Inverse folding.
């Protein structure tokens, strides 16, 4: 079949308020050219993030009605725990209200100033949570992972030789844990192979370093393994997932991605000493150990979402729909990161607008123009997000990308066709894009709340 249809029917709809170009120009100016500051009612197609923006199923909404709100020992927690351990069989589970809370608890417990955490590529909140402890977040993705044109099937892979060298130079005593992000969000939503996870584990074992997985998009990564890695075509997705996590000592998870819910997360591990400290931290900052900042309704929805996300019909549709957008843009010459990742299409802003230098944020300029022209809200993943160093200096990021993150089970093919048309129209007059500057920025995570304007 050439057409991959949505494996669901629409049961409820939310109206979209249609806006004019004049209205959008006023809205983005009032938002100080920061797309995070926009009112979502003023956005036509919202591709800012796929985190918590998807649609829940009728089964999940039914589970919401069964949520038990007991403060301690809720049966909803035990269903939540069983669903997680069915796929990620770690000994200890710490529920949190979302993934960044899991990161914060973990890094507060295990890191100290001058520690270092190697990763294929840290995402923004992960990096910020590491650096907030005075530690270094170090990216060690393979060379193909920063080459937009590379056809490597697993561009999210850890550079094993670089990891070995980094451990040798930094010293085992300064590396409390190693992380690997699946899929690699900052690198274009690119997957990590099973062989690479296995090799990373072997390096960590030789040096006695625990390995944690940033698991936000674990099911999408498993589907890529099934499609692309020799020996896995006939393996079920749940079994691929279980093997992935068998090589890890723990994980952080934002349930807002591949648990198909609007809020939630967890931290899981095998280290009992760390788990005790993390649970104490949880009670101090999030909630009791059997709800962790979540309602019973959330716990029920997550348990059901973990069953639905490993359904192969869903994953086939999910990955094919993202690929559909990327391929249609590529046909028109729009520079994107290829092959397409799982959850988003990444436009290469440096090649899209080569006349804008990286320190004038070509990704931010392009993201703003996509909104002004067509009401599409994307997200800059580049120098505005990652260019500022802990010491306050600034340098170009490895890449300047615009991420169009596709919410799960939310938009139709015709809406994605509209996205393609808008990008193509902006590409046709790309020489008119102008560089941008910060007019106000916080010390950390400046892309969330900073103010921009055009360079004079």
């Amino acid at each position: 079949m050439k057409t991959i249809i949505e494996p669901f029917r629409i049961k409820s709809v939310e109206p979209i308020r249609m806006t004019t170009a004049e209205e959008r120009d006023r809205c983005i100016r009032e938002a100080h050219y920061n797309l995070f500051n926009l009112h979502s009612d003023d956005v036509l197609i919202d591709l800012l993030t796929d985190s918590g923006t998807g649609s829940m199923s009728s089964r999940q909404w039914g589970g919401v009605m069964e949520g038990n709100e007991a403060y301690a020992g809720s049966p909803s927690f035990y269903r939540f725990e069983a669903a997680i351990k069915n796929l990620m069989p770690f000994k200890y589970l710490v529920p949190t209200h979302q993934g960044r809370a899991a990161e914060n608890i973990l890094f507060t417990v295990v890191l100290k100033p001058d520690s270092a955490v190697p990763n294929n590529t840290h995402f923004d909140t992960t990096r910020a949570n590491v650096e907030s402890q005075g530690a270094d977040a170090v990216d060690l993705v393979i060379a193909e992972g920063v080459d937009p044109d590379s056809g490597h099937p697993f561009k999210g892979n850890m550079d094993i030789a670089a990891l070995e060298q980094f451990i040798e130079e930094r010293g085992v005593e300064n590396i409390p844990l190693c992380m690997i992000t699946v899929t690699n969000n900052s690198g274009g939503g690119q997957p990590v192979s099973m062989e690479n996870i296995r090799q990373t584990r072997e390096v960590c074992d030789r040096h006695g370093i625990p390995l944690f997985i940033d698991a936000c998009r674990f099911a999408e990564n498993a589907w890529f393994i099934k499609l692309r890695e020799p020996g896995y075509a006939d393996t079920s997705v749940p079994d691929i997932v279980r093997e992935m996590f068998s090589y890890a000592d723990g994980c952080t998870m934002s349930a807002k991605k591949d648990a198909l819910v609007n809020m939630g997360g967890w931290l899981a591990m095998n280290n009992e000493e760390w788990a005790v400290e993390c649970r104490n931290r949880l009670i101090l900052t999030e909630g009791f150990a059997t709800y962790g900042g979540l309602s019973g309704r959330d716990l029920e929805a997550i348990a059901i979402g973990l069953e639905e996300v490993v359904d192969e019909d869903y994953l086939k549709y999910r990955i094919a729909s993202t690929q559909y957008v990327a391929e249609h843009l590529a046909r028109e010459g729009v520079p994107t990161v290829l092959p397409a990742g799982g959850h988003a299409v990444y436009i290469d802003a440096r090649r899209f607008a080569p006349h804008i230098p990286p320190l004038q944020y070509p990704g931010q300029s392009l993201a703003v123009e996509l909104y002004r022209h067509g009401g599409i809200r994307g997200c800059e993943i580049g120098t505005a997000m990652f260019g500022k160093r802990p010491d306050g200096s600034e340098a170009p990021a490895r890449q300047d990308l615009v991420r169009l993150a596709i919410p799960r089970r939310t938009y139709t093919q015709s809406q994605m066709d509209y996205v393609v048309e808008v990008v193509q129209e902006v590409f046709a007059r790309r020489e008119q894009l102008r560089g941008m500057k910060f007019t106000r920025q916080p010390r950390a995570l400046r892309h969330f709340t900073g103010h921009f304007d055009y360079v004079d």
Notes: The chain has a mean pLDDT of 95. The longest strand covers residues 92-96. The longest helix spans residues 312-331. The chain has two domains: 21-50+312-454, 58-308.
